[in-house]
Write a structure and sequence with these properties.
275 residues, mainly alpha, 77% helix
Length: 275
C-alpha cells in the first residue's frame, strides 16, 4: 500500500507538471493550444503502439468509442486554451467540475445509486468551482474555458464507465489516442511552431508528463484498491498550486483559496465515503 501511495503522489504531480509545460508553450512561446493538444495524443499513441494487440483495432468501428474520444479531445483542447492566460491552480480548480458532472450523468444515464450525502458534497464542490470561476463577478473567459474542459472531462468519465466492457484499459487508451490524434491532425499540422530545442523539449515534457502520470495512475490502481487511492487524486490541486507559484509566481486570491478548499474538502470526503 505504501508503494502505491508514493506512485499515486508521483502520478498526481506529473499530470499538472505536463500542463505546466503546456502553459509555458502557449503563454511564453506563442505555441497554439491546438498543437499542444495534438502533440499529446500523437506522442502518447507512439509510446503505447508497440504494446497494442490487433483486437484493439476493432474498437475503431464503434461510434460510441469515437464519441468518447472526441469528448477527451475537446477537454484537452479547452484546458490548453485556458492555460494560455490563467494560473495553473485556478484552471485545475475549475476543471474539477468534471467529477461533479460525471456523478450527475452517471446517476441520470447509467442509473448508478445516489446518496444524499454524496449529492450534498457534490453541491459543495460545485460551489467551490463557482468561487474560482465567479461568472459575471470577475471571472475571465479563460476560466470559462477551464470550466468547459471540466464538462468535457466529466462526460468522458461517464462514457468511460459506460464503455468499460468493450476492451482492456490499454485497448481503450489506444482508441482514444488514435481517434483524438486523427481528428486534430489537420489543425495540429496547420499550427506547427518553429521547433527549436527549447520548444521541442517543452512539447516532449507536456506529452510525457501527461502520459506517464496517467500510466502511473493505472500502476497504482493495480497495487491497491481504487477506493483507498481515490482521495489522492485531489493532490493535483495542491501540486498545481505549488507549481504555479514556483514557476510563474502565481498565488491564488482569497476567493480562489476558498474555492480550492471547498473543492478539495468535498472531494476528499466524498472519496473517503466510497471506502
Amino acid at each position: 500500500m505504501g508503494h502505491a501511495v508514493l506512485i499515486m503522489f508521483l502520478a498526481m504531480s506529473l499530470i499538472p507538471a505536463g500542463d505546466m509545460a503546456g502553459k509555458l508553450l502557449t503563454g511564453q512561446h506563442g505555441v497554439s493550444p491546438v498543437f499542444v493538444a495534438w502533440s499529446r495524443f500523437a506522442m502518447g499513441l507512439m509510446a503505447i503502439l508497440p504494446f497494442v494487440r490487433p483486437p484493439a483495432l476493432a474498437l475503431l468501428r464503434d461510434g460510441r468509442v469515437w464519441l468518447r474520444a472526441l469528448l477527451l479531445a475537446g477537454g484537452i483542447l479547452s484546458i490548453q486554451s485556458a492555460l494560455r492566460t490563467e494560473p495553473l491552480a485556478n484552471v485545475f480548480a475549475a476543471f474539477f467540475v468534471g467529477p461533479i458532472l460525471s456523478y450527475a450523468l452517471s446517476v441520470l444515464l447509467l442509473r448508478e445509486p445516489v446518496t444524499w450525502t454524496r449529492t450534498a458534497l457534490m453541491l459543495v464542490g460545485f460551489l467551490g468551482v463557482l468561487l474560482v470561476v465567479r461568472p459575471g463577478l470577475g471571472g475571465s473567459p479563460g476560466l470559462l474555458l477551464a470550466l468547459l474542459a471540466g464538462c468535457f472531462y466529466g462526460a468522458f468519465l461517464t462514457a468511460s464507465r459506460w464503455l468499460s466492457h468493450l476492451g482492456t484499459p490499454l485497448a481503450l487508451s489506444f482508441s482514444q489516442l488514435a481517434i483524438a490524434g486523427l481528428v486534430l491532425t489537420p489543425l495540429g499540422l496547420a499550427n506547427l511552431p518553429a521547433l527549436d530545442a527549447h520548444t521541442a523539449g517543452l512539447t516532449l515534457a507536456s506529452a510525457m508528463g501527461s502520459m506517464l502520470g496517467n500510466l502511473l495512475l493505472l500502476v497504482a490502481y493495480a497495487r491497491a484498491p481504487a477506493t483507498r487511492l481515490a482521495p489522492l487524486v485531489y493532490f493535483q490541486l495542491i501540486a498545481a498550486a505549488g507549481l504555479g507559484w514556483a514557476v510563474f509566481g502565481d498565488l491564488p486570491d482569497l476567493w480562489t483559496w476558498a474555492g480550492l478548499s471547498l473543492v478539495l474538502g468535498a472531494g476528499l470526503v466524498s472519496a473517503l465515503l466510497r471506502r
